[in-house]
Amino acid sequence: MGISAKWAAALAVAVAFAIGACADPQQVSEIKAKVDEIQAQQKDIVAKLEGLSQGQKQLLAKAPAAAPRQPQEDPNKVYNVPVGKSYAMGPATAAVTIVEFSDFQCPFCAQAAAIVKQVTDAYPNDVRFVYKNYPLPFHKEAMPAAKAAIAAGNQGKFFEMHDKLFENYRTLSEDYYAKAAGELGLDVERFKKDMADPATQALVDQEMKEAREADVRGTPTIFINGKKPQGRSFELYKGLIDEALKAKGKAG
To answer: How many angstroms separate the CA atoms of 21 and 166, rounded?
Structure first.
């Protein structure tokens, strides 16, 4: 592998990690296209360098390469993300609604789940949390896990299953779902039937459609009153929630 090829491959990895989320295939494809473009530009540059003196080459070699910038989200854009039939916790009349598109096998989503819990614990009366499934195709257990959560929800234990799945996101399996259902006191046979029910798949499909309509490119993607925060931390979310409550005439 040449120097330019090594640099481009390293750039692809660096950009993916910089995103701080599990990227979907569309985003990965966009990154690869950008890397391919850079490689083509580098070949042209190398050809031109052949005509330069050794001193000029050394000077240019010291110049830092500019990495491509990721498209920036508009922090003020408000998306209309419907609650629909997705599972939610917190008052329906809450001043602030947090919607999360997530994947139960995504490590970044497991981290986000802990932050969201901090938020819902801190604002039990002012925040409504809505969870929407966005299982990525390269996480083979993401779709079954999404169905397991919905099947548990049919028996009133969606968020209990949600917590168990994220606590064990590294070891998800068909056997684990049934085991978790039993530990939650669910009717396990009904749970298995509900996992296989076409209506369960239909709900996941609907949530994935809503994700695409809201420009979701990876997981987790969080919306606070329709806006995508530019970062992920309890302090950031708290500031945005307090600002929203103040705007509505409520104390933080």
So the answer is: 15
- For CA atoms 17, 21, 26, 30, give the dihedral sign: negative
3 state SS of 172: coil
> Six-digit token pair at 45?
């540059």
pTM of the predicted structure, to 2 decimals: 0.77
What is 87-247's CATH superfamily?
A: Glutaredoxin (3.40.30.10)
66, 7 in Cβ contact below 8 A? Answer: no
What are the residue boundaries of the structural domains of the chain, listed by start?
A: 3-61, 87-247
Q: What is the identity of the amino acid at 21?
A: A
Q: Name the DSSP letter for residue 232.
A: -
User: Is the Cβ–Cβ distance between 239 and 96 less than 8 Å?
Assistant: no
Using one digit for the tens of pLDDT, what is the confidence trace for 188-200?
999 999 999 999 9
Find the DSSP H helices in 142-173. Answer: 142-153, 158-167
DSSP structure class, residue 92 = T
- Are 136 and 109 in contact, with CB atoms under 8 Å apart? no
pLDDT digits (tens, 9 = 90+) for 178-226: 999 999 999 999 999 999 999 999 999 999 999 999 999 999 999 999 9
Residue type present at position 65 = A
Q: Which amino acid is at 182?
A: G
Distance between CA 143 and CA 151 in Å, rounded?
12
